[in-house]
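Researcher: Here's a chain I'd like modeled. Treat it as a single chain, no partners, no ligands.
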Amino acid sequence: MVSNMQLQSAIRHFLSKKREDSLNIMTDVLRTASCIDSGRSIMDDDYGYVIDSTNGDILQVENMRNEVVFNLNLERLKVSKGAAKG
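Model: Modeled as a single isolated chain. Structure tokens:
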């Protein structure tokens, strides 16, 4: 991993989520970047996210490179919201 930011809080967040539910396997660090940000790639605009506004959980990520419509996957959202816990 290569990073130009402090990752301690992201790692703490990941470990906390992992303790809550062992199915949590990843933490993604997202930030807003201007169109002239040197760390930004043209590929950065290719993904659409569904994020739970109450806790920041990423519920769905879709590659939008060749798409004009974002299809919300309701079955995936049910699993993301804890249906897999039983």
